[in-house]
Specification:
The protein has 456 residues and is an alpha/beta fold. The protein contains 22 helices and seven strands. It has four domains: 172 residues, 3-Layer(aba) Sandwich (Rossmann fold); 80 residues, Helicase, Ruva Protein, domain 3; 90 residues, Zinc Finger, Delta Prime, domain 3 (Up-down Bundle); 71 residues, post-AAA+ oligomerization domain-like. 52% of the residues lie in helices and 8% in strands. The termini are far apart. The relative contact order is 0.07.
């Protein structure tokens, strides 16, 4: 029995203790990790009084759960708080390091622990990195209650977690922390003499802390890291000048600590698609300011500029179309400019294209027309080309009626022949219906004129 317990304990990383001797060797973000729900800041929609997650934690509900949210929003912290509150063994490992062998070993030990009346919580950080086989290894043990699985992920569980496993877990969505919430955490770190920076006698204005909060983009861990570096720089600067008195963390020091803002962005993840969607929809809504903002967010986070250029060309044909035919040419020129001069100079070419598309007249008539055409192509019979539209390069083809009845438009007075060019089943079908925006207004008038000519 004792031997089994030792083996089990060796398989997981214990929760860091709060021994003063060990605190100094841990990063500020880890030292300041909340230990209770009362210390937890943010996510009021989940852990506020009477809210679903708080109720589940306080009742020690054994249901498995998935925490989904951006980095630094409290996913791991909530798992550790549950470990403190619940009456169960807590096993923690990272999906980056663990394989199927480790998972099976943990599950086997959890089954044995259950025989002795002990429940086991398995916390998996970055659970989206597990493949299907690794996720499937959890399923039978979750079903029979051998373990209570808590997974943390920055990716959409709908796409990254097996549906069978996902259906047996409650999904809780964590939001980025607000600037006010981050400032509260930073103030707490500055004043906490046990786990924080209180013994360094530091002070910082609200403006300075808000600058850190703004740079952190709702990531508490990132904010703590910046504060810790800024505190170290401030102490070094002060000691060089005068060793006594309170040390002020200035905005200049914070700027040095930050160096460059870390933008939340994952080229292969959901945020990638969220931001390109925001860019496209801002253009569609004729909002050049918002479009420029989302463009800069992507470029500054390191997105491939040619990917953006391709999407910009798509916007030109999908949302502007023939309302402003020059839009496509301008976007192709922007693509060529990016390819020719590279970055960062090419960002202005993309910005020019984005603003042009935003203020251009809008029409999705071509997009809608092509969609209607595709529907008919898929749902109607593939009729042969009408004989009068076929060329007759041989006498045999001419004898079979190829080209018979064809009317050469240039021989008519108005250059329009009253000739059906669609298959019989689609006779007189209308797909393209231009709007009254920009050049399409003239196109609409021309099409109406063509109809009148054909009638006469």
């Amino acid at each position: 029995m004792v031997k089994w317990s030792c083996e089990l304990m060796s398989l997981f990383s214990p929760i860091p203790n709060d021994d003063p001797a060990a605190l100094g060797t841990r990063p500020l973000a880890d030292r300041m990790r909340p230990r209770t729900l009362d210390e937890f800041v943010g996510q009021e929609h989940l852990v506020g009084p009477g809210k679903p997650l708080r109720v589940q934690i306080e009742r020690d509900d054994p249901t498995s759960m998935i925490f989904w949210g951006p980095p630094g929003t409290g996913k791991t912290t909530l798992a550790k708080i549950i470990a403190r509150i619940t009456k169960a063994d807590f096993i923690e490992f990272s999906a980056v390091l663990a394989g199927i062998k480790e998972i099976k070993q943990v599950m086997s030990d959890a089954d044995r622990a259950r025989q002795y009346g002990t429940r086991t919580i398995v916390f998996v950080d970055e659970i989206h990195r597990f493949n299907k086989a690794q996720q499937d290894a959890f399923l039978p043990h979750v079903e029979k209650g051998s373990i209570r699985l808590i997974g943390a992920t920055t990716e959409n569980p709908s796409f990254e977690i097996n549906s069978a496993l996902l259906s047996r877990c409650r999904v809780y969505v964590l939001n980025p922390l607000t600037e006010d919430e981050v400032v509260v955490l930073l103030r707490r770190a500055l004043s906490d003499t046990e786990r924080g920076l209180g013994q360094m006698h530091l002070e910082a204005s609200d403006e300075s802390l808000r600058k850190i909060a703004a740079y952190s983009s709702g990531d508490a861990r990132n904010a703590y890291n910046v504060l810790e570096v800024a505190a170290s720089l401030s102490v070094e600067t002060r000691l060089a000048a005068s060793p006594a008195g309170t040390i002020t963390i200035t905005e200049q020091t914070i700027q040095e600590a930050v160096q460059k803002r870390v933008l939340l962005y994952d080229k292969g993840g959901e945020e990638h698609y969220n931001i390109i969607s925001a860019l496209h929809k801002s253009v569609r809504n004729s909002d050049p300011d918002a479009a420029l903002y989302w463009l800069a967010r992507m470029l500054e986070a390191g997105e491939d500029p040619l990917y953006i250029a391709r999407r910009v060309v798509r916007m030109a044909v999908e949302d502007i179309g023939l309302a402003e035919p020059n839009a496509l040419a301008l976007c192709m020129a922007a693509r060529d400019a990016v390819d020719f001069i590279g970055m960062p100079e090419g960002n202005l070419a993309l910005a020019q294209a984005i603003v042009y598309l935003s203020v251009a007249p809008k029409s999705n008539a071509l997009y809608t027309a092509y969609g209607a055409v595709l529907q008919d192509v898929e749902q109607t019979a593939a009729e042969p080309v009408p004989l009068h539209l076929r060329n007759a390069p041989t006498s045999l083809m001419k004898d079979l009626g190829y080209g018979k009845g064809y009317q050469y438009a240039h021989d008519t007075e108005d250059k329009v022949a009253n000739m059906q060019c669609l298959p019989k089943s689609l006779r007189d079908r209308v797909y393209y219906q231009p709007t009254n925006e920009g050049v399409e207004k003239r196109i609409r008038e021309r099409l109406e004129e063509i109809k009148r000519i054909k009638k006469t």
